[in-house]
Design goal:
elongated; mainly alpha
Length: about 100
């Protein structure tokens, strides 16, 4: 019982920080790629995996807990990295095609 409230606050902070991180990453990608279209497309693959994970976890367990939140944050970091690599290669291939 002693750790119930701090763990709940920690989980809520993790989830709130993840949402703020997603918004910030989208804005940064708009700036880096100088394309509003790419910046608005980037959250789609970033949100699919956590949404599926939370949906499956909620269906099987019934509530989102601290381990689920930590797993989502870790997966989000990996997904964002992959998204940036993919978008960089996409923009390079697109610009090479136009030359």
């Amino acid at each position: 019982m002693i750790f119930a409230h701090p763990a709940q606050r920690n989980m809520e902070s993790i989830l709130r920080g993840t949402m703020i991180g997603m918004a910030a990453i989208s804005l940064i990608l708009v700036w880096v790629f100088r394309s509003l279209r790419l910046g608005l497309i980037s959250p789609v693959p970033n949100l699919i995996s956590p949404a599926m994970g939370f949906g499956l976890w909620g269906y099987l367990v019934g509530q989102v807990s601290f381990p689920a939140a930590m797993t989502t944050v870790t997966a989000f970091g990996i997904i964002v990295d992959d998204t940036i690599h993919f978008m960089t290669k996409y923009t390079k291939a697109w610009s090479d095609r136009l030359l």
